[in-house]
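REQUEST ID: PR-0412
SUBMITTED BY: lab tech R.K.
PRIORITY: routine
TASK: structure prediction, single protein chain
INPUT:
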Amino acid sequence: MTDARPVQPAPHALTTPAELRSAGLAADTDPATLAEVARHFRIRITPAMQDALSAAERETAPNPVAVQFVPSAAELVSRPEELLDPIGDISHSPVPGLTHRYPDRVIVHITKTCDVYCRFCFRRETVGETGPLSEPELQGAIDYVARTPAIREVILTGGDPLTLSPRRLSSALTRFAAIAHVTTLRIHTRVPVVAPGRIGPDLVALLSGLGIPVWVVLHTNHATELTAEARAAIARLVDAGVPMLSQSVLLRGVNDSHEALVDLFRALQDNRVKPYYLHHCDLARGTSHFRTTIDEGRALVRGLRGPLSGAAIPHYVLDIPGGYGKVPITADHFMPGARPGLWKVTDWQGMVHDYADPER
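STATUS: complete
OUTPUT:
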């Protein structure tokens, strides 16, 4: 997916096909094809990830950072099972900007902006379309939480919440934290890895000083992403008492090997981040080239036991298409169906769904 020449990191994010080619990326992709991919799915690669990409170029083939962020022609291939809303954000949205799938927690899509646009993102159809939630929409989400006492946890996602201005983020967190029955806030983000300079003293003070726990869930998929700057940003958060978990996606060509997963989860544990979720790749449009089979994923995770301590092994999960929630990919939830590649999946409410693996 990359030119053989060393990548020359730019002092700004790369956002267009022309900038990618100028930086020595996507040289093996036809310009017209690259433009067509960019027409459908946004591009953004931060300077930090350009540095990581350059480092990976010297060590690994294929480049696990380039595969995640550099567009490819494979994104124009959609399979029949792929969905515009793979995990049911829209179908479980009682008010704009909020998803309520589980009784005691909600997701608030606080912004549609990201610092990077991942080629496998399950929200790739909508990220980048708009910026932060409008004030009326944010207030509507706050009012919904306030009148729903079963909700004890508010999860900010997007987009990436840490791309918000300090004023907007502080206002949202403070207002959710003031609701009496909300006891935990959670932020899902890539920022400490892809834009570590954003993790400054003011942000750290905000996240550690709200009076209720704020958990930061870091999205990272390969140990190469954990640059020295990223590790320092993580340390600033953890040293201030902000608990950190990680979530990763199992991606073909990125981390679908025993060695890549062991290196990633060891590096996270070494940096005081608890590996939390390893997601089976969602059925987003144009992502079939990233997806492993369930059997391949199970074998990889099974091989982690022994080489890694239990504290370094995440839950391998499927987000059941349609918004039925996450389930561990274990015998308790996954049973073989009527033919090879078809599974019977039991969700958290006891309902059974069919899930078909991609054909190999």
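NOTES: The first helix runs from residue 17 to 22.
REVIEWED BY: pending
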